[in-house]
Amino acid sequence: FPVTIGKVCKEKGKWIYMKKIISVSVYGTNPRYFQGALENAEIAKTLFDGWIYRVYLGSNAPAGFKEALLN
Question: From CA 11, how far away is CA 69, in angstroms rounded?
Fold first, then answer.
């Protein structure tokens, strides 16, 4: 998967490379959650260029949702 290296910080004596990731979890059966995730993915493309938009899906995601995110 694509990796974008951002800031570097030192924590507890170790160097940690910060990745630019937006992470969301989408689950449940309410369509507004899935619609919001799609809208946020579009916004993230514009406002957070170079960032990774990572989505964790529940087992009950509607048909076609994953494909819509990938487009």
Answer: 34
The 8-class DSSP code of residue 1 comes to -
1-12 burial, b if ≥16 CB within 10 A, otherwise e? Answer: eeeeeeeeeeee
* Tens digits of residue pLDDT in 11-59: 666 666 677 889 888 888 888 999 999 999 999 988 998 888 888 888 8
pTM exceeds 0.85 for this model: no
Please provide residue 27's backbone torsions phi and psi, each rounded to the nearest 5 degrees.
Answer: -155, 170
Q: Do the beta carbons of residue 63 and residue 31 sit within 8 Å?
A: no
- Both tokens of residue 7? 């800031």
The more confidently predicted of residues 71 and 7 is: 71
Neighbouring-strand partners of residue 5: 19
